[in-house]
């Protein structure tokens, strides 16, 4: 695996050169970070689950006409993706107050927002991914006005689709983060959905109990992170009863054998 040329290593994923020009391999690690990487740890089997969950969601989004970088899953931890030029903006969509919105504006976590809010953060670890306004994006040329419109339109479509998908399995989609990238076709750039959609970048609460089924379990030391991610995968129908743990076991065995 590591014989391939590594292009980039992030906090939760590694990107390798793909088999054809314009493709990359996205490898999902078990590493978890929070609070701008000040808190570090690992969630056993997270990479396997996020690979599978993200594959499922990107496939469904593709089927409703949202363009994504996803091509196909290769194995338990890897997927083949289109190479894009990442737009240095994190697009956060919020339906319910939580996290930094609650902190910043003093709105109690769990408060339904009067309307869906889209926020933009500048992707820069050294600066701690600061909240920015459209004006900053335009002024510094991080994305064009057309690209901003495309990203906002896609974010709303993704939110509507995912809110329904999760509601159908008893989960409230509180908020989530998206990243987009450009692909070049005959000198024209087109924006497509990139990165991943998984419990790492979403807040997912059980509708009946408000139990957190996402990375907040790690951020807030609640425990049961792996079980929460497994529960999301199970409800999405990705793991027949009893299979979730065996898949993870298998993966652990492989790692022990050094494969
Ligand atoms: N998020 C993310 N990566 C980031 C920041 C936020 O995936 O670098 C996601 C986070 O999981 C949550 C949503 O975006 O679903 C809103 O996050 P928030 O601004 O509340 O910040 P956080 O509490 O995650 O630091």
From TrEMBL:
Its EC number is 6.3.2.6. The keyword ATP-binding applies. PROSITE patterns: SAICAR_SYNTHETASE_1, SAICAR_SYNTHETASE_2. GO terms for molecular function: ATP binding; phosphoribosylaminoimidazolesuccinocarboxamide synthase activity. Keywords: ATP-binding, Ligase, Nucleotide-binding, Purine biosynthesis. Pathway: Purine metabolism; IMP biosynthesis via de novo pathway; 5-amino-1-(5-phospho-D-ribosyl)imidazole-4-carboxamide from 5-amino-1-(5-phospho-D-ribosyl)imidazole-4-carboxylate: step 1/2. It catalyses: 5-amino-1-(5-phospho-D-ribosyl)imidazole-4-carboxylate + L-aspartate + ATP = (2S)-2-[5-amino-1-(5-phospho-beta-D-ribosyl)imidazole-4-carboxamido]succinate + ADP + phosphate + 2 H(+). GO terms for cellular component: cytosol. Residues 6-235 form the SAICAR synthetase/ADE2 N-terminal domain. GO terms for biological process: 'de novo' IMP biosynthetic process; cobalamin biosynthetic process. The keyword Transcription does not apply. It is an enzyme of class 6 (ligase). InterPro entries: SAICAR_synt/ADE2_N, SAICAR_synt_PurC, SAICAR_synth, SAICAR_synthetase, SAICAR_synthetase_CS. Belongs to the SAICAR synthetase family. This is Phosphoribosylaminoimidazole-succinocarboxamide synthase.
